[in-house]
Design goal:
The chain has a single domain, classed as Rossmann fold (3-Layer(aba) Sandwich), CATH 3.40.50. Helices cover about 45% and strands about 15% of the residues. The protein has 7 helices and 7 strands. The chain has a 7-stranded parallel β-sheet, sandwiched between helices. The structure holds NADP nicotinamide-adenine-dinucleotide phosphate. NADP nicotinamide-adenine-dinucleotide phosphate (NAP) binds next to helix 1 and helix 4.
């Protein structure tokens, strides 16, 4: 199946987890994929998996929280791929813990990456997505990875929730703004997925979350990548605008 033949895609967070799985899935559908993340070695591994399977990938190593980086990676992606039909914003970090004890810098890191960088990549990509919608599939896709943490809030994760609520609101507003221009904006809200997202930040908060999810069979990154691919490959008339995907046993 190569439903995305001729498409250019940019995926942030492509060095691991959901972003890496999504990049592989889009490449398997024929898209040429620009892989964005800080870890050049891990991006090169994902690129090798893609090219080894007969796909096309370019590595764009960047810290997208740096002010000039989002504009640069979007420009580099367009230069390398010739067009931009798909953007998947998957880069994110979760640093939970006591709002009294944890440093403000952790809050800033989450806002800078989960929200500001996502908005900056989207802003830089919008003109290219609008332009590409006039040819090829006749539709282009901006997919933002939010979370079930963007739907309901709980204690000890105030800023992670704030960023994910923000992503969901940002996506819905953009969806309405571009609904008549053949640019679909979708927001995906996963529950627990087995990735390195849980490896960062306060060990106490991490242990508490692991305990809360002890009975849950986490999703695999490929489960979310399958959903993203489904959203993107739907007929032009169909917009799956907001989708929750969670483990069957996550309450
Ligand atoms: N795992 C879950 O249970 C879950 C649930 C709901 C939502 N999500 C969301 O899914 C998204 C993907 O997370 P994941 O679970 O796949 O976690 P992950 O495996 O830790 O992936 C995070 C990605 O973000 C990239 N990244 C981090 N800082 C960056 C920076 N400054 N500049 C560029 N890239 C950066 C990382 O790459 P480098 O280290 O190479 O920079 C990595 O590729 C996140 O937005 C997360 O909030 C995850």
């Amino acid at each position: 199946m190569t439903r995305l033949n001729g498409c250019g895609a940019l995926v942030t967070g492509a060095s691991s987890g959901i972003g890496a799985a999504t990049a592989r899935a889009l490449a398997a559908e024929g898209a040429a994929v620009a892989l964005v993340g800080r870890n050049a070695a891990r991006l090169a591994e994902v690129a090798a998996q893609i090219t080894g399977a007969g796909g096309r990938a370019v590595v764009l190593a960047a810290d997208i929280t740096e002010v000039a980086a989002p504009g640069q990676v979007v420009a580099d992606a367009v230069a390398a791929l010739g067009r931009l039909d798909i953007v998947v914003n998957a880069a994110g970090v979760m640093l939970n813990g006591s709002s009294l004890k944890r440093p403000f810098d952790e809050w800033r890191q989450m806002v800078d990456l989960n929200l500001t960088a996502l908005m900056a990549i989207s802003k830089a990509a919008l003109p290219h997505l609008v332009a590409a919608a006039g040819s090829g599939r006749g539709v282009t896709d901006l997919v933002n990875i939010s979370s079930i943490a963007g739907r309901t809030a709980s204690a000890g994760a105030a800023v992670y929730h704030a960023t994910k609520f923000g992503v969901t609101a940002f996506s819905e507003s953009l969806r309405q703004e571009f609904a008549r221009r053949n640019l679909r904006v979708s927001v995906i809200e996963p529950g627990a997925v087995s990735t390195s997202l849980f490896d960062h930040g306060d060990p106490v908060a991490r242990a508490r979350l692991a305990e809360r999810l002890a009975e849950v069979e986490y999703l695999q990154p490929e489960d979310v990548a399958d959903l993203v691919t489904h959203v993107i490959t739907l007929p032009r008339r169909v917009a799956l605008a907001e989708v929750v995907i969670r483990p069957i046993d996550q309450i």
